[in-house]
TrEMBL record:
It comes from Prevotella lacticifex. Belongs to the Skp family. InterPro entries: Chaperone_Skp, Skp_dom_sf. This is Membrane protein. GO terms for cellular component: cytosol. One of its GO terms (molecular function) is unfolded protein binding. GO terms for biological process: protein stabilization.
Length: 201
């Protein structure tokens, strides 16, 4: 059986790479020159903020709880698969010893070998099933995280009136004035709203 490797995917947790917060229709790039002045004025009036994604991942209690939960599930999966693998390896070793000591008839040896192959296939199927179930659960929590953040920002922005709230992760934003950073406010707000894993975020 192949070793299972399961990790939480955070790359897809936010679809808020660039979140528009004013619900106004987008302008067509082919507008004539008579409208360009108004576009420039509109851009000058834009209010932009950003949130550090890494800080949300490390400080939002919901995500801390998710990580703890999923790490426990991953450990249980690894333990289950390792137990199956060790059992199969022991059976294979016993079979090999039996062959060397002429313990089995030809028919018995073929039957045992077929049974070992079946156990190996069942182990692979178990690994695939557990992996699929795990990844499905990860996707569910990722979606819940994204929904939680988007819902919070929608409420938060009713008063703040930002035009755009960007997700900053690594170097995806080349420059940003620190005054635009609303991460602490967002994290504090998310944690205040969070009531535990058994409740909606």
């Amino acid at each position: 059986m192949k070793k299972i490797l399961l990790t939480l995917s955070v790359a897809a947790m936010l679809g808020m790479g660039m979140t528009s917060c004013n619900n106004q229709p987008q302008k067509n790039d082919t507008q004539d020159s008579s409208t360009k002045g108004s576009i420039a004025d509109s851009q000058a009036d834009m209010k932009i903020a950003y949130v550090e994604v890494d800080s949300i991942m490390s400080q939002y209690q919901y995500w801390k709880d998710v990580m703890k939960l999923m790490q426990g599930k991953e450990a249980n999966i690894q333990k289950t698969l390792q137990g199956k693998q060790q059992s199969l390896q022991q059976a294979a070793a016993n079979f090999q010893q039996g062959i060397q000591s002429n313990k089995f008839s030809r028919d018995e040896a073929q039957q045992i070998q077929a049974n070992l192959q079946m156990q190996a296939q069942e182990g692979d199927q178990l690994q695939q099933r557990l992996s699929n179930e795990y990844q499905k659960e990860v996707s569910k929590y990722n979606q819940a995280l994204s929904d939680s953040i988007h819902h919070f920002l929608a409420e938060y922005n009713k008063d703040k009136k930002f035009t755009l709230i960007l997700a900053k992760q690594g170097d995806n934003i080349l420059y940003a004035n620190n005054a635009l950073d609303i991460t602490d406010q967002v994290v504090a707000g998310l944690n205040k709203r969070y009531k535990g894993m058994g409740n909606k975020k």
